[in-house]
UniProtKB/TrEMBL annotation:
<keyword id="KW-1003">Cell membrane</keyword>
<dbReference type="InterPro" id="IPR010290">
    <property type="entry name" value="TM_effector"/>
</dbReference>
<feature type="transmembrane region" description="Helical">
    <location>
        <begin position="378"/>
        <end position="398"/>
    </location>
</feature>
<keyword id="KW-1133">Transmembrane helix</keyword>
<feature type="transmembrane region" description="Helical">
    <location>
        <begin position="404"/>
        <end position="425"/>
    </location>
</feature>
<dbReference type="InterPro" id="IPR036259">
    <property type="entry name" value="MFS_trans_sf"/>
</dbReference>
<dbReference type="GO" id="GO:0022857">
    <property type="term" value="F:transmembrane transporter activity"/>
</dbReference>
<feature type="transmembrane region" description="Helical">
    <location>
        <begin position="338"/>
        <end position="357"/>
    </location>
</feature>
<protein>
    <submittedName>
        <fullName>Transporter, putative</fullName>
    </submittedName>
</protein>
<keyword id="KW-0812">Transmembrane</keyword>
<feature type="domain" description="Major facilitator superfamily (MFS) profile">
    <location>
        <begin position="236"/>
        <end position="448"/>
    </location>
</feature>
<feature type="transmembrane region" description="Helical">
    <location>
        <begin position="197"/>
        <end position="218"/>
    </location>
</feature>
<feature type="transmembrane region" description="Helical">
    <location>
        <begin position="287"/>
        <end position="306"/>
    </location>
</feature>
<dbReference type="InterPro" id="IPR020846">
    <property type="entry name" value="MFS_dom"/>
</dbReference>
<feature type="transmembrane region" description="Helical">
    <location>
        <begin position="313"/>
        <end position="332"/>
    </location>
</feature>
<feature type="transmembrane region" description="Helical">
    <location>
        <begin position="254"/>
        <end position="275"/>
    </location>
</feature>
<dbReference type="GO" id="GO:0005886">
    <property type="term" value="C:plasma membrane"/>
</dbReference>
Length: 448
């Protein structure tokens, strides 16, 4: 690859080492566009959860909407990975962002336009159907975007790029839910005759926010080699990818861990509307504060992970952070004090993002470029694909028992997952260090 594609932008010598991936122009364009778009997406996610709970007062339906938005990733993820390896990842991400903008716009129109009875047209089945559509688009977006992320930075900055990407995601999680909560509350006061007007405005803002990332993608240097398709290659089939993973114990173990955490750990986010309303006695603003607290903790974890320069020791981080997350969620389940809940969810966010960044960094660093799209599709299937089943499990458990017991189930499960991963860590480490990809990283670090 030419110096134009490998070397950082020399016009930005002031960028600190913690943000070193920002020295690459295409990465800067991508990350700043995502910051705006993801803020809108978090506004929509918060407003959607609140709208579903307002319309139905059902914890199970909260989980069902989460299931509808995530299960398509499990069904279509493999196809998304094949597309990511065979087509231009840049073009694929551009198309998926446009489709997600259309989905947000449809959701806004249905919520803002009144029907014959004066009530908004939006019904729960509309939300579920549009959630399935968004999930289907994300089945193609996620493997392409994750593989594309590594193409816009050289290999020695992958760890930093992934950490900054997570930091951007969680910065949006700080501002998006807080803005959504305040906007919904303000609109309830200003437009008393317009039901769910604040939620509809959140959806509209999200639709408009996609313009930022679409424009940034179009500004990229698409003539650069790294924005072109990786394939077609002789390995561009599912069977070869499965064979590749069969001989990579370390990659399989990381995926199993991520899938188990997605099943039992990540669904705690689905319960936040119920925690805000039932446990803490709050409204949409309380939901905004809880989600923002998770984001603040996750941002802190992202900054800590961005400071790391190598992958050594990330296995221990995964095990320790997963166990700490489980313990924190168990403690949070016992409180009905808002500020303690915010602190607890902040710590939970820090632990969860530290584990997930470590896991994704190891997978991205230890996979061959020819298989990256398909491997990342399997990774997405294990993370996003398992979350819908976790959402149904935790949501149903909360419906039949209560939110506190559902959170305790999540916490205990994650402690067990951490113990199992720690037990197998020596074998995982040995498999990783014997792989040709690890040898490539080691030799590359020495040359650099």
């Amino acid at each position: 690859m030419s110096a134009k594609q490998e070397e950082p932008d020399q016009a930005l010598p002031w960028v600190p080492n913690t943000l070193r991936a920002l020295r690459h122009r295409n990465y800067r364009l991508l990350i700043f566009g995502q910051l705006i778009s993801l803020t809108g997406s978090w506004m929509q996610s918060t407003a959607q959860g609140w709208l579903v709970y307002q319309l139905t007062d059902s914890k199970f339906l909260l989980g069902l909407v989460g299931f509808a938005s995530q299960v398509p990733v499990l069904a279509l993820g493999v196809l998304g990975g094949v597309v990511a390896d065979a087509m231009s990842r840049h073009r694929t991400v551009l198309i998926t962002q446009i489709l997600l903008m259309v989905q947000a716009l449809l959701l806004a129109v249905l919520t803002l336009v009144p029907g014959p009875d004066g009530r908004p047209l939006i019904q729960v089945w509309h939300i579920i159907l549009l959630a399935v559509f968004a999930g289907s688009v994300q089945a193609f977006d996620m493997p392409a975007r994750q593989a594309f992320l590594v193409q816009v930075v050289p290999k020695y900055d992958i760890n930093n790029a992934i950490a900054l990407n997570s930091l951007t995601f969680n910065a949006a999680r700080v501002f998006g839910p807080a803005l959504a909560g305040m906007l919904i509350a303000i609109m309830q006061g200003l437009a008393r005759t317009r039901q769910n007007f604040g939620e509809g405005m959140c959806f509209l803002i999200n639709a408009l926010s996609f313009v930022a990332v679409i424009v940034q993608l179009m500004r990229m240097d698409a003539s650069a080699k790294q924005l072109r398709p990786v394939g077609p290659t002789t390995e561009a089939d599912l069977a070869s990818a499965l064979h590749y993973l069969r001989h990579r114990l370390h990659l399989r173990a990381l995926m199993y861990h991520a899938g188990a955490v997605a099943l039992l750990g990540l669904p705690y986010l689905v319960l936040l509307p119920a925690v805000a309303k039932d446990t803490l006695g709050g409204d949409s603003r309380m939901l905004g504060w809880l989600t923002t607290s998770v984001g603040v903790g996750a941002m802190t974890g992202g900054v800590l992970m961005a400071r790391r320069k190598h992958i050594q020791g990330l296995g221990k981080v995964i095990a320790g952070a997963t166990a700490a997350f489980g313990l924190t969620v168990i403690v949070v389940a016992q409180t009905s004090t808002p500020w303690l809940a915010c602190v607890g969810f902040g710590i939970a966010g820090l632990c969860m993002v530290s584990a997930m960044i470590s896991s994704q960094t190891l997978v991205q660093s230890l996979v061959s470029e020819n298989y990256r799209g398909r491997v990342m599709s399997f990774y997405s299937m294990m993370t996003i694909g398992m979350m819908p089943f976790g959402s149904l499990l935790v949501g149903g458990f909360a419906e039949h028992f209560n939110v506190q017991k559902a959170l305790m189930l999540s916490g205990i499960g994650c402690i067990g997952i951490a113990a199992a991963f720690a037990w197998y860590l020596p074998a995982i480490r040995a498999a990783a260090r014997s792989s040709p990809e690890y040898s490539s990283i080691s030799s590359g670090a020495k040359q650099k």
